[in-house]
Amino acid sequence: MQDFHHDRARALLKNAEELFDKESVQAAVSRMADSLNDRFGDPSKQEFPLVLGVMGGAVVFTGNILPQLTFPLEFDYIHVSRYGDEDQGGKVVWKVVPRPTVSGRTVIVLDDILDEGETLAHVKERLLEMGAKEVIIAVFCDKDIGKSKPVKADLVGITIPNRFVVGFGMDAYGYWRNLPGLWALNPDDLSTR
Ligand code: 5GP
Ligand code: MG
Ligand code: MG
């Protein structure tokens, strides 16, 4: 069993293409942090945003960007998943909802990737319903899918082509969240997805 997993994981990566190396990924995270620090760094505004990391894909992005943010903030995570027929938009299910107060606050949502945008559109809508003053969507990757999305990211690290990527928190079948760069899988390896 163990060997099967090991071989499968290795085979996926063997056929994959590295789109962005560790250095480009880290540079993109730092640019995003700079931009948030510019926006929230003014002490006279006394802002105290709520930062929400969307588990599990955003765990690595979140862990990399948080120590680069220099303003007071409160952090928590949320967990949402999309189930059902992906082509029909799927159904977004909340496994963990925000515990701190959302009402009246600026909320910064950190996520790994904006693909079709259904997940983040739903998250943004729900946070606004909970009374958020403003919802800022910060995604590490924005996938160029060649059509408009139901939600727009306010801050993007890297724009990627319309390929299935792994690394920097993103997985295929649970594998390779631990890669420091971004890799696009070979489409042949996704046929049974
Ligand atoms: P959306 O609702 O935007 O289509 O789906 C977003 C979620 O799907 C992401 O948060 C991520 O979990 C997953 N996803 C979308 N594209 C990719 C991809 O290229 N690679 C991986 N590993 N996950 C993806
Ligand atoms: Mg996700
Ligand atoms: Mg996944």
TrEMBL record:
Keywords, ordered alphabetically: Glycosyltransferase, Transferase
InterPro entries membership: HGPRT (IPR050408), PRTase-like (IPR029057), PRTase_dom (IPR000836)
GO molecular function: hypoxanthine phosphoribosyltransferase activity; magnesium ion binding
Gene Ontology BP term (one): hypoxanthine metabolic process
Record bears the keyword Oxidoreductase: no
Any matching Pfam family: Pribosyltran
Xref: CDD domains: PRTases_typeI
Enzymatic class: transferase
Full protein name: Hypoxanthine-guanine phosphoribosyltransferase
Organism name: Massilia eburnea
GO cellular component, one term: cytosol
Domain Phosphoribosyltransferase residue range list: 16-171
Transferase in keyword set: yes
Reaction(s) catalysed by this chain's protein: IMP + diphosphate = hypoxanthine + 5-phospho-alpha-D-ribose 1-diphosphate; GMP + diphosphate = guanine + 5-phospho-alpha-D-ribose 1-diphosphate
EC number: 2.4.2.8
